[in-house]
């Protein structure tokens, strides 16, 4: 089973609550990962302060077809934000301050793309049509942001990839390490 399929059950179970840009974090907020005690790169430091739930404004969520704010999570020690549209699909945005694209274990059929001046990978299996797609966006050499989409009916990979691309394009301007 592919690594991005592992998130599908999580996406289906999360409740929708969160905040928009500028709202204070609630008591349930997952703190941003602390930089290493060794001198972190400026990109890692910039990424460490990003709140994955603040990467999408209310207008951005509407553009992506999300009607609810996200819920903060921690996935493998990385700060994440889950958005669930009950009975339809889920989106997870994960800020990984320790792994660049070259460090990630992705399948050989990952498609190299560019998102807003950032190198990226589109990971999906159109032949399986399992309703999942991930877009992994570089945020410097040793950091990345992952946008995972999973449809609740486990079909419609093309639709999942369209939504993942839309979300990735919306968050890319806020990421360090882009070309412009």
TrEMBL record:
InterPro entries named among the record's database cross-references: DUF3558
Top-rank lineage group of the source organism: Bacteria
Keywords: Signal
Signal sequence segment: 1-22
Protein name as catalogued: DUF3558 family protein
Organism: Prauserella oleivorans
